[in-house]
């Protein structure tokens, strides 16, 4: 098998993966109600400027937020102002 063909296929797969990840991030960043417009703009620029690493960072952030939200939901609520 020709080595240049292997590199072409590998490059194509990485390119398509980067485009798919970037599009996924654009939609999920836009639909996220928990961040303000400035943060959305920063995340969009990061996801589009760094085609592989930006989306991976966004997906990691989303997973961590979901994990923390689930932990907060399962923990009992503490009272901020105890009765006197």
UniProtKB/TrEMBL annotation:
The chain crosses the membrane at residues 6-29, 41-59. The keyword Plastid does not apply. Its main location: membrane. It is a multi-pass membrane protein. One of its GO terms (cellular component) is plasma membrane. Keywords: Cell membrane, Membrane, Transmembrane, Transmembrane helix. It is found in: Cell membrane. It holds the Pfam family PLDc_N. The keyword tRNA-binding does not apply. Coiled coil: none annotated. This is PLDc N-terminal domain-containing protein. The lineage of its organism: Bacteria, Bacillati, Actinomycetota, Actinomycetes, Micrococcales.
